[in-house]
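ugh ok fine here u go
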Amino acid sequence: MKNYPREFKADVVALYESRPEATIRSVAAGLGINAETLRNWVRAAGASRPRGRRTPDATQPPQPLEAENAALRKKVRELEEEREILRKAAEYVAGETRW
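structure:
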C-alpha cells in the first residue's frame, strides 16, 4: 500500500472539487491512482460538490468569443493544477526510489 503525502492528497481533492463535471473515476485515472483511494480522500476531507448542473448567474448569455475565452482560461487553470500535482507526485516517487 502506498503512502501519499498529505499535501498531495489535499491537492488531488482540491482538483476534484474544482471540476464539477469530473468524476472521481476520471480524476483518479488521470493521475494514475485508485478511484477508491481518491473516494476515501474526498470523504476524509469532508469535500462535497452540489449535485446537478449549475446555472449561470449572468442575466445575458456571454458573447461567443467571451465564452470561448472563459472556457480556455478554465482549461489552462485545470492543466496547470494537474501539472503541479503530477510534478509533486514525480518528486515523491523519485525520492522513494533513491538508494
